[in-house]
Amino acid sequence: MFLSSRAKITVQGSVMDLADNPALEDYSLRYAPSAFRSWSPWMIFLSCLAGLSAMAGYALDATFVNAFGFGNALIGFAVATAVTFPLTLTAAFAIARKHIDIDLLTRGAGFGYLGSTLTSLVYATYTLIFLAYEGAIMAQALSALTHLELHVSYAVVALVMIPLTVYGMSFTAKFQAWTWPLWVALIGVALWSAATAPHAAHTMVHPHIPATAATGVTVLAVFTIAAAQLSLAAQVGEQGDYLRLMPDSRPGRAGRWKLAIILGGPGLTLFAVVIFFASTLLVGYAETQTTPDRAAEPVELFTVVYQRLTGDHTAALVLAGLLVLLSQIKINIMNTYSGSLSWSNFFSRLLHRHPGRAAWVFLQVGLALVLMELDVYHHIVTVLAWYANLGIAWIAALAADLLINKRLLKLSPAHIEFRRAHLYNVNPVGFGSMVIAATVAIVAYYGAFGPTAAALSPFIALVLALVLPPVIAAVTRGRWYIARTSELPDGEEELPCSACAGSYDVADMATCPYHGGTICSLCCSTEGSCRDRCKPSAWRPGGEPVLLGMPGTPAGAVSATVGAATEEVG
Predict the structure, then answer these.
(1) Number of separate domains in the chain
(2) What does the alpha-carbon distance between residue 174 and residue 171 come to, in Å, rounded to a whole number?
């Protein structure tokens, strides 16, 4: 029935459905069942740590330190961490407990089914920016080792990511775990080399500073750096793509389970401060041996550092190239994988088609190659400063609904509903808050409210996105969260989908009058002909939520209150 919505490829003479291949699909766009979540919290944690290997931190830290000074940069990073850690902590635990990705979480946390389409695009853009930036660093290392022309290296590193990412978590978990010992050894040797250099502490705190750079700690410089760093709040989405696969917490092991989530999710912002000290130590030494511009390129940076130990440029270059290539493969597996998930979510709602997560790997890699060719590497600070207005508006609105509306003020249902069949298309609580916050912040970014507001525009987005959700939820009385609910058979762990004939966990299912049975969340998302027949109104509340039972049962059209609907789905 739905062959038109599935991409099929021929492999060794047989037809394989990309969207139905668990090894490729990783339950994208749907609830991840316990049978699939076979990895230990330790393995999930190691996969989440891929962000630590990113060479972007070393390059960006050098840029901020050289522009504003060590003191301003350090305090700015600390402020950004203090802001993003609590915001992302709530989201990380919700993802791990509900076993849904950041997009499905956003749907039920105040944005609605179609409202979260915008955030899918924001998230996809984030993964794309960093895939291109990290890919450019990887290409620099490849060109230094092989003498390939840089634009050729761009194409090579883009193509390499396809086979490394297409098999999803099945490959990722093993690769990340196996390569950590080598990475730790390489980075450890580099840090030891820089730390034992003469006057290491002085060059770390007082690196080469251009004459035009800021001198002394100033509030504006600190918050300018922190504002740019707020864009990294969206990183919780990439961490969440792995955290959704966490096994359920076991008795006696809850502490380890929680620690894996904290350190593997929002804990990355804490590690960013550690990376800041490491990068300034390395760059501080490298700038005594070469120019600041060359020290800002990771392959050149580590070549200089390793050469202090080896005394040979070729040997140092090989070690530096190995470290940079390994680091960039680790982080770009995450960037490519998360991008494939976000594009899947985005296009499934626009096109009512899902050719499979693996198909969107090709789009993610292709777009990243375009950005590399457009020289995103040399414009990354400007790109992140602009993007921070969108990213922090999304994450702050999401966190405000999860923490303030659901827990503190009880303005929204406690349950996080992600199924299209049960949601209004747009919820003004989260969607409206994000649009208003991001719009005002971007207007400020372009100077409408003066230079200070322009520099601090992401903080404007942050404040508005935290304040508006409870205000809008109170005004709308929480009526835009649940459009209807489903009465499903008791005692069943899985139910058949009347659209695709597969069987899925009850948490992923809803009743469907159009198909005359139950339907899985993915088939519901890709169904374009039903015109939301199951909901009295998909765009605005038209009365009390409706409870739909199985066709032919007495519960076929029983009205329910918002409280009953919350209890039913909770």
Answers:
(1) 2
(2) 6
